[in-house]
Amino acid sequence: MITATDIEKKKPLAGLSESGAYQKLLAFASLIALLIGFSIASPNFMQTSNMIAILQATSVNGVLAVAATLVIITGGIDLSVGTLMTFCAVIAGVALTYLGMPLLLGVAAAIAAGALCGLCSGTFVAKMKIPPFIATLGMMLILKGLSLVISGTRPIYFNDTPGFDQISRGSLIGEVFPALPIPNGVLILFLVALAASYILGRTVLGRYTFALGSNEEAVRLSGVNTDAWKMRIYALAGGICGIGGILIASRLNSAQPALGLGYELEAIAAVVIGGTSLSGGRGTILGTLIGALIMAVLTNGLRVLSVAQEWQTVVTGAIIILAVYADMARRKKAG
Amino acid sequence: MITATDIEKKKPLAGLSESGAYQKLLAFASLIALLIGFSIASPNFMQTSNMIAILQATSVNGVLAVAATLVIITGGIDLSVGTLMTFCAVIAGVALTYLGMPLLLGVAAAIAAGALCGLCSGTFVAKMKIPPFIATLGMMLILKGLSLVISGTRPIYFNDTPGFDQISRGSLIGEVFPALPIPNGVLILFLVALAASYILGRTVLGRYTFALGSNEEAVRLSGVNTDAWKMRIYALAGGICGIGGILIASRLNSAQPALGLGYELEAIAAVVIGGTSLSGGRGTILGTLIGALIMAVLTNGLRVLSVAQEWQTVVTGAIIILAVYADMARRKKAG
Amino acid sequence: EDVYIPLVSKGFQHQFWQAVKSGAEQAADEYGVTITFEGPDNETMVDRQIDMLAAALANNPKAIGFAALDSQAAIPLLKQANDKGIPIIAFDSGVDSDIPVSTATTDNAAAAGLAADKMAELIGGKGKVAVVAHDQTSRTGIDRRDGFVNRIAEKYPDIEVVTVQYGQGDHLKSTEVTKAILTANPDLSGIFGTNEGSAIGVVNGVQELGTEGLVIIGYDSGKAQKDAIKSGLMAGAITQNPVGIGYETVKAAVAASKGEEVPALIDTGFYYYDASNIDDPEIAAVLYD
Amino acid sequence: MSKLVDMTGIEKYFPGVHALKSVQFDLVPGEVHALMGENGAGKSTLMKILSGIYQRDGGTLRIEGQEVSPKTPREAQDLGVGIIHQELSLMNDLNVAQNIFIGREPRKSFGRLDEAALNAQTAGIFASMNLNLDPRAPVGSLTIAKQQMVEIAKALSYRSKVLVMDEPTAALNDAEIAELFVIIRRLKAEGVGIVYISHKMDELKQIADRVTVMRDGEYVGTVDAADTPITRIIAMMVGREVNEEPLDVPDLGDAEVSLEVSGLSRGKEIQDVSFSVQRGEILGFAGLMGAGRTEVARAIFGADPRDSGEIRVHGQNVSVKSPKDAVRAGIGYLSEDRKHFGLATGMNVRDNIALASMDLFLSKGGVLNDAGMAQAAQSYIKQLGIRTPSDTQEVRLLSGGNQQKVVIAKWLLRDCDILIFDEPTRGIDVGAKSEIYRLLEELAGQGKTIIVISSELPEIMRLSHRIAVMCEGRLTGILPGGKNTTQEDIMHLATQRAAAMQVTGTLQ
Ligand SMILES: Nc1ncnc2c1ncn2[C@@H]1O[C@H](COP(=O)(O)OP(=O)(O)OP(=O)(O)O)[C@@H](O)[C@H]1O
Ligand SMILES: Nc1ncnc2c1ncn2[C@@H]1O[C@H](COP(=O)(O)OP(=O)(O)OP(=O)(O)O)[C@@H](O)[C@H]1O
Ligand SMILES: [Mg+2]
Ligand SMILES: [Mg+2]
User: Fold this and answer.
1) Among B60, B256, B309, whose Cβ lies nearest the Cβ of C12?
2) B143-182 pLDDT tens trace
3) Is the pTM of this model over 0.90?
4) Which option is the CATH number for D5-238: 3.50.50.60, 3.30.70.100, 3.30.70.890, 3.40.50.300?
5) Could you report the per-residue pLDDT of D481-492, keeping only the tens digit for each?
6) Which residues cross the membrane (chains A, B) (predicted)?
7) Which residues between 25 and 44 in chain A have a beta carbon less than 8 angstroms from any beta carbon of chain C?
């Protein structure tokens, strides 16, 4: 009676290809279609330098979207990713420029600050039972204000920290393969995505992330300390936002304390376009990356085409809807 | 054996007091606490003119929050309320100023445009099965762009439409009771809230709004055309945003085409602070009104206290979290 | 008695507004008055600014400084202030009304025109240029864009403005916008960035793409922009006198609150600065970090 | 007599599952036609095709002679087919009356609701069902049994010609089942055709006219209920004989007391409950619906807070504040409501089985040993006969009974010393049921402590070494297991209400 088919078949990294490589390949199709469309429309689009520019443009939003994916899979939502990123950038600025810490320590401080703030959100959600929307909306405002307070409402420059701007702008890959000067920021995004994928697919933390989003009460009644795990997931997401803060600070070679509002919607949009369900329990990092790329290609392509700003917005909105619709329709067909 | 106890007892307006007057009274407590706190902190706070300023500030956000409440109770979310409001304001501007329509016709056109856009979102969600977050995010962008396109990226002024600014600024109440010059905008908010409450509590549409959010599949299995009803609810919400558009246009005596981004989060925050669950199935209009008032009182009070702007943001975030926490704790105690 | 003067501005977090604020605080110290300085998150939030004005009125101020996002929208409240005998000082851009007793402002259109002249001069009177603007609908955004574009159209027939794109004054977005513009127009000769965030974004984008020989003209100051000018990345920039605007506004407000006569228009001026004159005392005084 | 429903050659495929293989089924007016089969045999799927929820992939469906293909539940309703679903499908935020009349609310002009008529009509239906329930009670606050009654009331309100009941009695107690049978007989007399799905074999003789048996998605045969012995029907279902061994109460002597509960109280639901269980013992908990058995179990497990009471495990006082503490102390609890409290339905079988035992599969740095999890899952799939295409199938796609087995597997894997099973065989077929009985006895034999809560008296009597009986939150007595205790003894204790309670009467 038992059908022990493919016990031996290794399950691939769940985070990356949970719901079947096939489907992800299909989600990929919207991205390819956009790339082809823009290439035809403008000869300037398909240049190496522009492709790298698109990847570079994906890096910050991609990292934030990865953070948001984790929280969304638990069935929550994180509106604070954008201002938390800024807050961490400011912390890095304070640590490196004002306190003169060594580079690595300053970076670590920023990431730790991110994880700590994530832990706060997680505590609000898990222990105080505040709906994630409100908890992270509150955090978004608090962090926005604190960034201004701590920085004295002025940008903090990293001129005294040589090499800081190389974190995002330098290119280790380019040093090895000069033809492919992919900036480190992009490399970091992929490393973060790989790590998050691994955590989601292969570790207890990841398994509980999905389980919490699927049925939190059932998990609790299985003797799991759901509150503690949820807090860990939010802290992890916060730490990833900290990496995002480092990336943006390094790219701008300064911590801009007023930035970050509105980034949360873009990040969440990337997550949802990537096929992660806002009701929790399912989602993939690969999908999120594709979602972030779709957004970046769209924005870049329309700008390269010099479409009037107001029409850029209209077209972006329409294509987001269409991309998700196409994905839905294909999934339905795929069963 | 049947105990048909007080079947005859009239149920109060469900939308307004669904989950018990007691609980709502408790949610009210945060608002009162804020009012008392600010009155003690600043003698200037409790002036009639300031109270009216607070109400006036609530009117637009309140109307949008009412619209968002309807959609949220179905288990959806509406990110387009802000830009839809602007779009409707622009439509009113085009109708009244450019086409020279009579006042009432122009107002009707704006509301109809809102309902139509709501219907579009509803169609995306119900028929094309696009997640509400994406469908309304797309609409938000489309409408933002279209507002700029239609208006030629310029404000449209209503100087040729005498009386238009009185829709929001005038005071019918003030004419009757000169001591209470409550602006019409506030009156309209209350009328909209009453109507929405009635619809939620007493009509089929309202019943299905709750039912859809509670268990859509069960409703469908009961033979209800869930898609059609969902589209109607989104259309209704859109129409209400249209009213919001008239209110803001009249208040500014102009249609400002770039306005509206960021308003959606404030509206949704008011809804959630008011106790409506983002997972759908439960919520009240009264709660939303209280939520919107809490936000307005908070913003105004901190300004009157001359708190530094960066700290205003921090305190607002903290108080939003605290207000919802207090509400949660009280509810838990109330059982 | 405590003299309270609220300033309701168009923005808050941007360095330009922070410089206005510091000028205002300087004057407040000198004249011994209390001020508050507030502005919405971005320049589209017309109604939020009105709410701020309403809250300011509640505190019974002696005078109000006001930088209107939209003059018309504010008129009822301005009337209310007028009825209460509270003088209004407009700053940054004027208010279309005779209520303000004084206006401390820069002519943004003329300043952007100067940027166009400098651009034309530096690229040799011909070629393609682009504009990275900060806002499509706000008064400052429109004036600077149109001031630049119109001057080019009027005076330099061989120069073409190939595109105007918007980065919301967000450094990162402006960077991406710049890169897209350069991708689409590899033969570009110059870019004008209409505020600090836009200008820095242009510099960033050019740096990241490694484009050379491009003339960048910026607007406002700030440390990054000053560094870019000193290092030659940026040819030069227009600066207004934000500190002066803030200072003059409060000064006029204090005078008006005492019933003294104030000038109807206080032109705080604008300057073009580049590596050659950036350290001149006259210029250095109006720059901020 | 003309046939109401005639299904022939019905085929249905799901990804990876051939759920129905040329199945036939027919129904005449005024009969109760029982549909029997093991978990996952395809009963629910067949009925979902009849009621327009699924579309068939092959075969013909005739209703009153007309070939039809209902595409939506609405179309099926219009054809006269009503269904009570196996899984509750109610709107928890709405009240009882609103649920029953969803889609058919009495209206006034302009889409206004006539709430008074709605409540009155609902009260009428309840009266005809002899059911005591407030039409305005929110459904989410009702017990599962009450919710099931609401589902039944809803189906009745359609006045269908064909009424499908998919395990309507799974959550009901004997008294309620008796009431339901009265209703069914009345409907029968009115000429309604009823399809009746149940795993409770004793109900067949009471109510069914004909029995159709399915196995593995195939049609096995249709027999007359009155003349066919139950054993033969069971043999048709499982393809072999199932022998019920009688209960053999072991003498535990002075075996260690592994769980001792004293003075457990919480509000009105639990009032001063004390008992103890020995190592190797199976303690049954009997009582009427709402007696508070589930509440006691949840309180012991730390799922709900308690006002007072001590819990001692192996003589040690343990502080159980959350399920985590309970599991750490070696207590496992299998909830009666698998959908809400037992399963992460969006996850696969493997993860669900491992959910309570992740620490067994941990290697360095929190990395999971997926191969180990797969192996464990596979072994339980085999041991419990869970019907699933693979251990990576999502649990929500399994049949109800197989879902229940997944929950059981979860707790078996956890290997707790003390296991509380709340309605462990709800929705489980006879074959699997006796497997589970054997399993529980085996576990007890291995020295585990077992508490079984069940609303089926035969099950309690079949399993329990001792029987604890509850009534309205109080433990009214503990009876010895075995032949000497009769159903009457249990019912006597189960209805021993406190004096004060008898006066107030109506409990809701
Ligand atoms: N939507 C679906 N997708 C995939 N497989 C399904 C789906 N629905 C049912 N199945 C499978 O079809 C088979 C028949 O399921 P069905 O629910 O009809 O069984 P059942 O006879 O009602 O069992 P039970 O007594 O446990 O309720 C099972 O193997 C089940 O896993
Ligand atoms: N979710 C709930 N909300 C409100 N009251 C509840 C809820 N669940 C149970 N109750 C009430 O608690 C009491 C005990 O119910 P419990 O479920 O423990 O009984 P039980 O003996 O396990 O019966 P059952 O056979 O229904 O499982 C009853 O009065 C019941 O109505
Ligand atoms: Mg079934
Ligand atoms: Mg129970």
Assistant:
1) B309
2) 999 999 999 988 999 988 888 989 988 888 888 888 888 9
3) no
4) 3.40.50.300
5) 888 888 888 888
6) 21-41, 53-72, 79-99, 105-126, 133-157, 177-200, 233-252, 285-305
7) 42, 44
